[in-house]
Amino acid sequence: MLERLNMDPVRLEYERLMSHAAGHATGRQTSRHTGGSNDETLACMLASWQEGAGALPDYFGFSPDRFSAMLARYFPGLDAGSLQQPGRIADTLRADEFEDVHRLLLGARAHACESELFMAEVVARSCHGQDHLWQDMGLWSRDQLSALMMRNFPALAARNVNNMKWKKFIYKQLCVTEGIYTCRAPSCEVCIDYHNCFGPEA
Questions:
Q1: pLDDT in tens, 129-138
Q2: To bridge 21 with a disulfide, which of 26, 39, 57, 178 should be the other Cys (CB 3.0-4.6 Å)?
C-alpha cells in the first residue's frame, strides 16, 4: 500500500484507466510493429492530460457527448465525471488547419474503424500545440506516437522513412498534397534546418 501511495499520480491514474480497458479491434495488436494498443496509448494521454500535460483542451476538443462515447468505447464502465478537465479551451481559429490534417489522417486509416476516427481527431487537434507532437498529446515518449501512427495510419506512417519529427512530417505531407514546395534545399541532408526536422525529440 505504501508503495502505491508513493507512485506518480499520473501512473496511478493510468493504472486506474487500464483497469477498465476494453482491448478493442486494433487495440488487440501488440506486435513490435504496432507497439501496444490504443487503450494503453489513450490511457497515458488521459492520465497526463488530467495533470495539465499536453495541449489538448477540455474533453479532448470533442463535445461532452462524443468524449463520453470515446471513453465508453475504450474504457467501458468508467465514469466520465471521474476525469479532471484541465481547463483549456479549443483553438477555434485554426479550424481549417484541423480539417486539413484530419482529412490527411482519415485517408490513411488502417481498418476504417471507429477507434481510428477518434485517434484521427486527437492527433489533428494536438498539432495545434507548441511542443513536439508526442508532448502535445500528453504521451510519455516519441516511440508511443510512432507506434500509434503505424497502428492507426500505416499508409501515412510508412512514408516517414527518414524518421522526420511527426508534426513536421504531417505538415510536409499537406504541402505535398497541395503541390506547395517552399523548401529550397536540394535535399534534407544538406538543409541548414536539418536538426529542426530530424533532431532528437526530448
A1: 999 999 999 9
A2: 39
